[in-house]
Amino acid sequence: MSTTLVPLVVVLPLLAAAGLAAVAQLAPARFDDLVAIAVSAAVTVLCVLLVFRAANRTIEYWFGGWKPRNGIAIGISFSVDPLSAAVAALVAVLATAALIVSWDYFDGGVPQYFCALILAFEGAMVGFALSSDLFNMFVFFELMSVAAFALTAYRIEQPSALQGAINFAVVNSIGAFMLLTGIALLYGRTGALNLAQIGQVLARGKADGLVVVAFALVTVGFLSKAGAVPFHFWLSDAYAVAPTPVCIVFAGVMSDLGLHGVARVYWEGFSGVLGGHAEAIRGVLIGLGLLAALLGSVMAFVQSSLKRMLAFVVISHIGVFLAAVGLLTARSYAAATLYVVADGLVKGAIFCGVAGLARATGHTDELRGYGSGRNLPRTAVVVGIGALGLAALPPFGTFLAQSLLAKSAEAVGYGWLPAVLAGATALSAAAVLRASARLFLGLGPRRDPLLEAAPPGEEAEVKPTPRAGVLLWGPGLALLAAGLGLAFIPGLASSAIEHATRFVDRPVLARETLHSVSPAQLRAQRFHVTGESYTYGTATVLAALGFAWLGLYRRRLPAAVRRATARRVDPAIERLKLLHDGVVGDYVTWLVFGTAGVGALFALVLR
Amino acid sequence: MTFLPYALAAWIFIVGLYGVVTSRHFVHLVICLGIAQSSTYVLLLAIGYRTGKKAPIFTSGVPARVGAVDPVVQALTLTDIVVGVTVAALLLALAIDIWKRAGTVDPDQIRKDRR
Q1: Which of A85, A87, A95, B7 has the fewest C-beta atoms under 10 angstroms from its C-beta?
Q2: Are B77 and B45 in contact (CB under 8 A)?
Q3: How many domains does chain A have?
């Protein structure tokens, strides 16, 4: 029974997308919205069911019944463990929210093919989350990318939207070529595309040059999708110009899927052969994560366009998750997944709020829209509390994940890491808090030379209309409640750790996949939030409020302090801003140097 | 076992990337992207190639003692080509629209207009 559910979560949205595209000319108004929302909601229910069905053993679904024989997998499989299914459920929830928000969002109704594209995007992302075949992952990766390129360029009358989509498409395509080159090398070495089988064959050999190069290429391919630094340049351009309902899905889960790919490929494929070098790989991945967390939060703090700011918040949080994945322990993997889900729901909620603001006032720039949201209390609540959620407000969902991350970092001797990451999340959350104080409360000065205004043409997405229907703020409130409320599911963190412990046990999992050996029993794990974690969480929230205050009222500081910091900080920030110049050639140059750098680092540390 | 196809794949990839980085025209850029992608075709086919083996078309009967080259990489290459065509078509459509709206297809020029 549970195995027949598995293909449905991908087949349903893809078939519905094809059907909607076919009848787009004939169907009555609102028909495709209704169908799309129903299908997406059904996929959500199925994915949540899968989370529970997979609790006892990983569900292996072999397409066409091509099961492995003698440990050799010729068929293509989905392997569904509760953590992957949770990520798939996040995809489906956010896609449903995006479809509901878009109902009331666009001028003159939902544009043609929009629902079909969202469904195709959703199907591809769910498929990517569940796939355990490397080439299948590549195909779903490309399918979701193509749908995302088209959705980014939806406001085709805007040159900036077209340019954002081109930058996105070019950088991601080159990332995909790197991924495919890595896959080809792995296939050449192991003769397999199934991750479990690749892992088994690699584990018998040693970590030579080819293995290291393949690992570096696959990692870079996924990281370019995730938007880790220095592969992140496309991300702010694309998020700033994509229609806001699409951003709900982009910000909430698309980038995080890149990290899901990294974790899956490391644990299922490389953890055997590279296991002896875990310490070195940990260092590299955490370094990359820190870079993204810090750069993203600083850049978020100097934006005035809310969508661009949130794009940098996404980069900053990707850095946090990458560091969590990079700790390379079962607990940190559980923390990363919990964080991705809770934070994804919160980020999705904030973008619902942004959609409501754009609909009501016509723009979302914190300086241009100063005080314009005063009579939108519900939208203000969604964005404001969402921003606190970004700062891991105790005792809610993101806080639970942050505490688990802190504990798992201490366990491998990275006790300082959580403090740095908390600083980065505080700074990026402060940017959103400051913007909502300006937009919804009319606090602080109307001008700020530090902030970078959006390039012309990025604002004014829709014409302002006074209505702010329940369809705009309702999904936001629901996502926020879900994201924050996750913490109150009893035993959530403990069971996430249990499933993560099983997930990282590669040899046992591979035998289960390839030889249908019955699974090992789950060993009970415990996790309790301690008083220390509460101190941490409270400090993060206070720091976020403090940074936000600084953003609004720096002028009240003594003049000498202000001048001294300005002299140090301003030139550096100007230089950072100049890097993000929107020219695709420069972005690709960074991608190439980043790849070379990551490759060289791996080559150095894995000798 | 010769290294020539692998060197060729690396060379094509680098040349394609160079074109993308220095491009002053979106159509040129899309072509260069295609060139970079074709390096993956060469690499895949080189990995599956076996000297002296036949094409893997089994209906016409490949003698068992001769054998065939690896059909899996050929299927991967085919899938890859389909993906590449999709992306290229989308990008070219975007380039046409940029030309219509902004009157230029030079990425640098568009940046100057943005500032």
Answers
A1: B7
A2: yes
A3: 1
Q: Of A34, A264, A48, A21, which is closest to residue A147 (Cα–Cα)? A: A21
pLDDT tens readout for residues A430-464:
999 999 999 999 888 888 878 877 666 565 677 77
ipTM summary value:
0.94
Best CA proximity match to A196, nearest among A517, A500, A507, A516: A507
What is the average per-residue pLDDT within B3-25? 93
Chain A: closest CA distance from residue B60 (Å): 23
pLDDT score at A547: 93
- Asked if residue A462 is part of any domain, the answer here is no
Nearest to A160 among B13, B95, B114 (CB): B114
> Which fold, B4-114?
Helix Hairpins (1.10.287)
The alpha-carbon gap from A30 to the nearest alpha carbon of chain B, in Å, equals 27
Identify the domain containing residue A158 by its residue range: 2-456+468-605
The per-residue pLDDT for range B59-110, each reduced to its tens digit, is 766 666 778 888 899 999 999 999 999 999 999 999 999 898 888 888 777 7
A 129-188: CB under 8 A from B? 135, 139, 142, 145-146, 149-150, 153, 156-160, 162-163, 165-166, 169-170, 173-174, 176-177, 180-181, 184-185, 187-188
Q: Is residue A384 part of a domain?
A: yes
Q: Which helix (H) or strand (E) holds A79?
A: strand A77-80
Asked whether the beta carbons of residue B29 and residue A170 sit closer than 8 angstroms, the reply is yes
Residue-level pLDDT at A575: 86
Q: Nearest CA to CA, how far is B85 from chain A (Å)?
A: 11
Q: Is B31 helix (H, G, I), strand (E, B) or coil?
A: helix
Mean pLDDT (chain B) is 87
Q: How far apart are CA A589 and CA A151, in angstroms?
A: 25
Q: Residue A365's beta-bridge partner residues?
A: A305
Paired with A79 in beta bridges are A60
pLDDT in the model for residue B115: 47
Tell me whether A213 touches chain B (CB under 8 Å): no
On chain A, the residues whose CB falls within 8 A of the CB of B37 are: 173, 177
- Which of A153, A157, A174 comes nearest B94 by C-beta? A153
A217 belongs to a structural domain: yes
Q: Bridge partners of A60?
A: A79
Q: Where are the domains of chain B?
A: 4-114
Distance from CA of B63 to the nearest CA of A (A): 23
Residue A461 resides in a domain: no
Mutate to test the interface with A, among B6, B69, B76, B85 (most CBs of A within 10 A): B76
